[in-house]
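Final report, closing paragraph on structural work. Over the funding period we assembled a curated collection of sequence-structure pairs, and we close with a single example.
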Amino acid sequence: MNPDPMKILESLKQMVRVVLAPLLCVLLVVIPVLARDGESVLAQAAPQPAAPPQAPTPAPTQATAPAALPTVEDLKVLALAGKDEVNDIQRRVMAPLVVEVLDQNDRPVQNAEVVFRFPLQGPSATFAGGKTTLTAHTNGQGQVAAMNWMANNETGRFDVHVSASYGNEVGSVIIPMSNANNVPASKVGVGASAASGKKHGLLSSKWAKIALIGGAAAVGVGIYFATRGGGSKTAGSTVTITPGSPSVGGPH
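Its predicted structure, as stored:
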């Protein structure tokens, strides 16, 4: 018996309705959910935009120290006593050693720092404690004397290096001296600075009195001025150099 085509077709339609209708309903519900989940996954997988670059934090400003003034060599250091003079090492009689510091306008510089330096070897001298250097300060007239020094036992010529400073101003001078034995009293301290002593007032009793507090060097100063009739004060008088506040100006 041949099947009826129409019945077969009707059976197929019925199956489609029974099977496909529920499937379509499920798909209508599932597809929107899958679409939302897909968008979320794609959003997470997409590269995130780079954050804008942050401006660098400026380093804290440090206060800069004021620039030091350049050193200017415009101080004049003059040898008032000691240049080409002779120390009698046998009788321990030393010549005076005095300098004067002037500014570029030839005005005395008060309270300038002055350093006297004797050679380390050969004919030389030392200050108290065996030191070869001495630091002192000028008085109101811009003058200062090297005190408490004694020549060594080596005869011959040597140079005393003297440097001065005031603020950023500096200057220097080299004072040649000699050590010798059996020097006549009239020859101790005789030299170029002694020859020009009247110009600087060296033959007054002032520097004789000042140097009398200089220990070993005092004897030579006393003989030096005594043999030239310089000053009328007694040998026991003393003068102490007391610098005032730092200043640059005319003599007081």
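The CA atoms of residues 176 and 247 lie 30 Å apart. DSSP finds five helices and twelve strands in the chain. We thank the funder for supporting this effort.
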